[in-house]
Design a protein that fits this description.
It is a single chain. The protein has a 6-stranded parallel beta sheet with strand order 1-6-5-4-3-2. 28% of the residues are buried. The longest helix is centred in the first third of the chain and has 31 residues. It contains 8 helices and 6 strands, in the order αβαβααβαβαβαβα. It is α/β, with parallel strands linked by helices.
């Protein structure tokens, strides 16, 4: 079953068919499965690293072309959560959007004016000054991008003192070695692009059963 830990030598899948058909599909099937198991395994390591905190590990849109659905499903199998599937799944205002609109506040206002009321607006910030502006502008989610752990701790304090609930997402340089200390500051989400773009493929092979006599 998906999400179950396995040890070396475990049979994870059995297929039946003619030898020719199985061998034709073998490499493609193994390539896909090895990548997906790698994604689930790396996700599980990140999830285990923040065990006991209130934070969640989430993926990003940095997926392999053509494999987004499968890789996001693998993240869930590993115990993680999915971020946006595509640009239409939620509004994420980044640096270029802010520059294009003239200011962070203007970008949020334009997004709010042209989006359904049910679609949440997230803003990426790189400083505490930008954090304050995003809060004042009414952002629903704020991404703390490439901040130090100390800066993120301060950002959590500033945000939690507001009466309006806002989700905080940490992003950037979230290695396995660092992710726990970031989770401990009180952010809600930790988005890790490496889950899908840098996961190491699992070591799998396909072997025929011994041919029956007769």
């Amino acid at each position: 079953p998906d999400g179950v830990a396995v040890t070396s030598g475990t049979t994870v899948l059995e297929v039946e068919g003619s030898a020719g058909h199985v061998l034709t599909a073998e490499r493609t099937a193994l390539n896909v499965l090895q990548r997906l198991i790698g994604v689930a395994t790396l996700t599980r390591r990140f999830v285990d690293a923040i065990q006991g905190t209130n934070a969640r590990i989430t993926d990003t849109r940095k997926t392999t072309p053509g494999m987004r659905v499968m890789q996001k499903e693998a993240v869930v199998a590993g115990g993680g959560s999915n971020h946006r599937f595509g640009l239409d799944s939620g509004i994420l205002i980044k640096e270029n959007h802010i520059r294009g609109c003239g200011s962070l506040t203007a970008a949020v206002q334009r997004a709010r004016a042209h989006s359904p009321h049910s679609l949440r607006i997230e803003v990426e910030v790189t400083s505490l000054v930008e954090l304050e502006e995003a809060l004042d502008a009414g952002a629903d989610i704020i991404m703390l991008d490439n901040m130090t752990t100390a800066q993120m701790a301060e950002a959590v304090g500033i945000t939690r003192r507001r009466t309006r609930p806002v989700l905080l997402e940490a992003s950037g340089n979230l290695s396995l070695e660092r992710v726990r200390e970031v989770a401990d500051v009180g952010v809600d989400l930790l988005s890790v692009g490496a889950l899908t773009h840098s996961a190491r493929a699992a070591d799998l092979s396909l072997l025929f059963d011994a041919a029956e006599e007769g």
